[in-house]
Automatic annotation (TrEMBL):
It comes from the Bacteria. InterPro entries: BP-dependent_transpt_permease, MetI-like, MetI-like_sf. The keyword Cell membrane applies. It is found in: Cell membrane. It comes from Amycolatopsis azurea DSM 43854. This is ABC transporter permease. Pfam families: BPD_transp_1. Its main location: membrane. It is a multi-pass membrane protein. GO terms for cellular component: plasma membrane.
């Protein structure tokens, strides 16, 4: 019970701050000198641009969480149907889908993001689809492997012998069967997507340098880790809580699902 509550707590804190923070805090504008120590007016001090660190942190969660959720959602929206198609339409479909997606593995993720930036393709509108595309191969492989598992294939063969069309079998039965592996993968993949987006922002490929986004704030204030640690450690802790909380909650929900079956 304690572990379940702790997981929800870890997940709720960064999400609630990201959603409610902009409503609570005012605009993130310069209010003093850079890296000013904490005082009564600025409990966490100021950042590299002289902005109140607490205000920056309260307003910076939504861009990062929003881009992470959008990239994950887009990747699974495409990857799950592709995996089901590859598993359900025979060897030719399997080979065509998987060999095509294997081409993506030849390109290092950060190199792809840097090439996009070097050609002038920057910002969330480019970054989110690019990160989603980089995750597509792994997601499709997870779905395909789950759909080809012996327990699933036995039921699929029985349904096929009953005359059910392949698409109905894949959507009606196999899609439900792969829900557990997909949810487990999503909890882990959240950290991968978060890392890619944060790395892109660290390298200046994503959001503008004056964005209050947590990843940008960590990168811009990393030099002040020892003199103004709060402005670096607080957003870093929130990102860590988001990843750990998501995995704990996912594990608990899946465990409860299997117990109820």
């Amino acid at each position: 019970m304690v572990s379940r509550t702790f997981g929800w707590f870890l997940l709720a804190v960064p999400v609630l701050l990201a959603v409610a923070g902009p409503l609570i805090a005012g605009p993130a504008v310069s209010v003093g000198v850079p890296w000013q120590p904490p005082d009564a007016a600025h409990p966490l001090g100021t950042d590299v641009l002289g902005r109140d660190a607490l205000t920056v942190i309260l307003t910076g969660g939504l861009p990062m969480i929003g881009m992470t959720g959008a990239a994950l959602g887009l990747a699974y929206l495409v990857g799950v149907p592709l995996g089901l198609f590859a598993a359900g339409r025979g060897r030719w479909a399997d080979e065509a889908v998987m060999r095509s997606l294997d081409l993506v593995l030849a390109f290092p993720s950060l190199l792809v993001l840097m090439v996009l930036a070097a050609t002038g393709h920057r910002g969330p509108g480019v970054l989110v689809p690019a990160v989603a595309a980089l995750q597509l191969t792994a997601i499709t492989r997870v779905v395909r492997a789950a759909a080809l598992a012996p327990g699933c294939r036995t039921a699929v063969e029985a349904l096929t012998l009953q005359g059910r069309p392949w698409w109905r079998i894949q959507l009606g039965y196999v899609a439900r069967y792969v829900t557990g592996p997909v949810a487990t993968d999503a909890g882990t993949r959240l950290g991968v997507v978060l890392y890619l987006l944060a790395s892109a922002n660290f390298l200046g490929l994503g959001l503008p340098a004056d964005s209050p986004d947590w990843a940008v704030v960590i990168e811009r204030n990393s030099e002040a880790l020892y003199t103004a640690p709060a402005v670096v450690l607080v957003p870093a802790a929130l990102l860590m809580a988001l990843c750990v909380g998501t995995n704990l909650v996912t594990d608990r929900l899946l465990a409860a699902r299997w117990v109820s079956l």
